[in-house]
Amino acid sequence: MKTAPSAARRQPWQKQVYDFLINTIISEGYQVGDYLPSVRSLAKQFSVSITPVHVAMTELEAAGYIERVHGSGAVLKRLPTVPGSPQSTVLPVVDVLGNSEDARAAAAGQPARPHRLETLMQSVVHHLGHQSDLRLSLSLVPARAKADASDGPEARLRLIMRSQPKVIVPLLRADGEGFAALLREVRAAGIAVVHYAARFEAKECDRVYSDYAQGQRDLTCYLLARGKKRILRIVTRADLPYELAKTRGFREVTSAAGLSEEACPEVVYSARAGGSAETKLLQWVEVLKAAGVPEGRFDAICAPSDEVVAFTRIALRLLQCSGIEVAGYDGFWTEVDWAAPDTLGQLAQNFAEELRPELRPVSVDAGLPAVGREIADVAKMRASEAAVGEAIVRTVPQVLLPPKG
Hints:
Number of domains: 3
CATH architecture of the largest domain: 3-Layer(aba) Sandwich
Strand content: 15-25%
CATH class of the largest domain: Alpha Beta
CATH superfamily of the largest domain: Response regulator
Oligomer: single chain
Low-confidence stretches: 6-10, 111-115, 334-341
CATH topology of the largest domain: Rossmann fold
Number of helices: 13
Largest sheet: 6 strands, parallel
Shape: globular
Order of helices and strands: HHHEEEHHEHEHEEHEHEHEHEHEHEE
Number of strands: 14
Structural class: alpha/beta
Strand order of the largest sheet: 4-3-5-6-7-13
């Protein structure tokens, strides 16, 4: 970063910090979603107290250039423009609405888990951030904020509406008819909405899908080809669009093979939030017991994610069950360090044999980076249009990943 200006300048310190940050953002190629230096580091660089730096940051936020995220710092919301440059003309605005935690993970370059929204945000921002014919803006909402809270997704969306962007891209951990109805209201106001239709669907709006039905069909066909006729499929949320699509694909294949729902049932289960890995494992053991796994009822289990494959393998060992193939979904077995404390904790060491990388399960890659590219393409198209036309729908195919071992 550039050296801070000397104290000889007769401008107030907050003005010097403000101008310094604007010039640095422009000259050093900052992109929307990047984090600025911390207040303390800037105060040290200028040899001043943190007060003028706070004032400068407040002015940058009021101007719409940054958004301060509690506990994380200041994230660049939109790029400042140089007078006389092509960007200083009036350009259509595409506003990406995401969760602050996802933006922080994406900016930090953390390993991307393909089912996580930071992967989508990273992809969308990457593809939109280098477009000279539009302005990219980033709006952030705390992931745990309630839908109707003052800092929640509905309040932020209404705030964005007042600024009249050309396109809004919601990438939030939100679901439910209430939020979908609000997106329809946004579109009725003449603002294009491009969203990922996995947790919710606003069918009047532009939407991009991962083809979960096709992915589940391919996965089920693979298991049938290996002679598996008694398959238990675990469902996390039966009401979510992506789970409904997977159920449809599962039933199409098992019915065509003459297998009944009794032979190939589905069980709804979602681990209670906040529990330790050991607690989740005990919960999972009880789920498998209730489903009749210890009695030899199944020869294959479709887990809702590759992470749950790990818990399932450990649970099967504790239940002394063998000969059951466990399939995953979302294909991030190779993306995650399974020894990480936030994933399996001590279980990763105690059951290292079940979690060896060469035992990667058969899985499905949901292709979220490709989904992000499609969302960005639709948003760019909408940004160039005079008016919002008929809803655009695109579907991204999924890829079956055979087991490594």
